[in-house]
């Protein structure tokens, strides 16, 4: 992409992604495209803590003479975004692309998710050091319909990964994400507004 597109991986919706997020997100906010890779996402908690960063809007700009303008809020990305998901993404990994789509952030690419979007509230410890969990809540949409659990989330663009291509180092889903973003960047370029001339005080 010649440096136009940022990439961020989300291994879960919990501690690992929380550690990775600042390291990967903040240095790339000025890119024109952003790939959110949630494949094999193991879940954890609600993904909104990450996705909300991509919904923030520029409200104003700060400028001074002979300097680069700054946005307000200070840390915000205006990039076009896509989400990658696959059959190994479950629980919060199911909800990640579901929320991404319903937030209007962009298209989801990959394969249907695992379909295990239920939650647990307690761990029952066993004498051998193991534990037992029992799902006790699930998700429904704003129309009151049960969603995702046992069916998964279906991406907008279905792209399968083939072992022979992967062995050669070719990731068809990633390449499709780049293709979609490059087209979006060309069709809807991000524009920086020109401010009025600096006032002259006599």
Topology:
Layout: E1 5-9, H1 15-25, E2 33-37, H2 48-51, E3 60-62, E4 70-72, E5 80-85, H3 92-102, E6 108-110, E7 118-125, E8 131-138, E9 157-158, H4 163-167, H5 172-187
Parallel strand pairs: 1-2, 2-5, 5-6, 6-9
Antiparallel strand pairs: 3-4, 7-8
Description:
The chain is α/β, with parallel strands linked by helices and 202 residues long. It has one domain (5-187): 2-enoyl-CoA Hydratase, Chain A, domain 1. It contains 5 helices and 9 strands. It has helices at residues 15-25, 48-51, 92-102, 163-167, 172-187; strands at 5-9, 33-37, 60-62, 70-72, 80-85, 108-110, 118-125, 131-138, 157-158. The strands form 3 sheets. Strands 1-2-5-6-9 form a 5-stranded parallel sheet, sandwiched between helices. The longest helix has 16 residues, at 172-187. The protein is globular, with a radius of gyration of 20 Å. The mean pLDDT is 95.
Strand content: 15-25%
Number of domains: 1
CATH superfamily: 2-enoyl-CoA Hydratase, Chain A, domain 1
Number of helices: 5
Predict the CATH topology. 2-enoyl-CoA Hydratase, Chain A, domain 1
Unreliable residue stretches = none
The first-level CATH class is given as Alpha Beta
The whole-angstrom Rg is: 20 Å
Described by strand count, sense and barrel closure, the largest sheet is: 5 strands, parallel
Going by helix content, strand content and strand pairing, the class is alpha/beta
Query: In total, how many beta strands?
Result: 9
pLDDT average, as an integer? 95
| Large-scale geometry | globular
Instruction: Report the helical percentage.
Output: 10-25%
| Order of adjacent strands in the largest pleated sheet | 1-2-5-6-9
Q: From N to C, what is the helix and strand string?
A: EHEHEEEHEEEEHH
The CATH architecture assignment turns out to be: Alpha-Beta Complex
């Amino acid at each position: 992409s010649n440096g136009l597109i940022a990439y961020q991986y989300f291994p879960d919706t919990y501690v690992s992604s929380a550690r990775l997020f600042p390291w990967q997100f903040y240095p790339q906010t000025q890119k024109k495209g952003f790939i959110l890779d949630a494949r094999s996402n193991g879940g954890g908690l609600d993904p909104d803590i990450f996705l909300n960063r991509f919904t923030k809007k520029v409200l104003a700009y700060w400028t001074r003479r002979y300097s680069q303008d700054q946005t307000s809020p200070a840390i915000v990305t205006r990039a076009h975004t896509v989400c990658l998901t696959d059959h190994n993404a479950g629980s919060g990994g199911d909800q990640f692309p579901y929320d991404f789509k319903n937030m209007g952030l962009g298209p989801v690419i990959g394969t249907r998710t695992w379909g295990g979007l239920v939650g647990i509230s307690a761990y029952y410890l066993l004498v051998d050091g193991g534990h037992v969990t029992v799902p006790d809540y699930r998700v429904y949409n704003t129309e009151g319909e049960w969603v995702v659990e046992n069916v998964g989330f279906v991406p907008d663009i279905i792209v399968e990964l083939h072992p022979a291509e992967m062995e050669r180092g070719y990731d068809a889903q990633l390449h499709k994400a780049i293709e979609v973003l490059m087209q979006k960047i060309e069709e809807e370029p991000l524009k920086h507004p020109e401010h009025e001339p600096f006032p002259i005080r006599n």
